[in-house]
Known about the structure:
GO terms for molecular function: ABC-type transporter activity; ATP binding; ATP hydrolysis activity. The protein is an alpha/beta fold. The protein has eight helices and nine strands.
Amino acid sequence: xxxxxxxxxxxxxxxxxxxxxxxxxxxLNIKSKDDFLVLDNINLEVRRxxxxxxxxxNGSGKSTLxxxxxxxxxxxxxxxKVVGRIAPLIEIGAxxxxxxTGRENIYFYGSILGMKRSLISEKIDxxxxxAGIEEMIDSAVKFYSSGMHARLxxxxxxxxxxDILIVDEVLAVGDNDFQEKCYEKISQLxxxxxxxxxxxxxxxxINDHCDQVAVLAHGKMIFNGxxxxxxxxxxxx
Length: 237
């Protein structure tokens, strides 16, 4: 059973949206010399319980592809089919309210991810312990470092019990011990049937944890296959 099926996905942006005519033209999908493709005819299938790695240089379209999969942004062309509840961890601090405490944000962000309040209350101690920010949990998150944001965000997302977990480069801001802890949790989720989408510049982690790897360049998927072969192909570019 497939968790994700993308067919002929293309996404464009327009450089100049400074006037009403340009905005209307963009919304009506009218071509313009200011258009540029961020994703170009992407086809992808991920089975339930698989881990897909996505690699490529900065600006290759990785984050945009994740946002299309997560339903945060929509493609201009193509079809997207996603089966199950998605928990995206794409941007540091996304979904958090800076004036609320870490504890309050666990309830706030957990509810966004579809967790019932009773379930959050049941798991909140585990979330706080996993994030390792006990001393700051009752402080406003606007005072958190990027690493603390990432740790709390991952902890909430992982304990939400998603069908599909999407993890972008946010883990890179954590220390090595926390990264290993996160990858252990990812392996646990995978063993329970969670589909994982992982974007990282760490080729060792990509090779160790992924079943297939897609290589992006200039918005195109130029390779999709076994992790070792995909990494070799990417490094040769």
